[in-house]
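User: Hey, quick favor. My workstation is busy. Could you predict this chain's structure for me?
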Amino acid sequence: MTETDKKAKIKYGYESAQVMGVAFELGFIIALPIVLFGLAGKWLDSRYHTWYFIYIGIALAIILTSTWMYSRFKAFIQKLKEAAKISGKDEQGK
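Assistant: No problem, here it is.
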């Protein structure tokens, strides 16, 4: 195994670990905005004697979280594809 092969495999492993880290963050990334926006909506509902701010807050949290996760995963998938491409070229070049 050449030095380039080792570096490519290490980079691919590092990128895979980053994706796994995002998977663990997912629970906090989803729960925290829903709780915060939900509580803010509940506070606004109690202040203005309405019933719909909590639903607006939860919907906004879901939209923002989904958008953020989409962009984050898109970037990680691109990095993994580039790392796999480098790793695949090194193995084919042997």
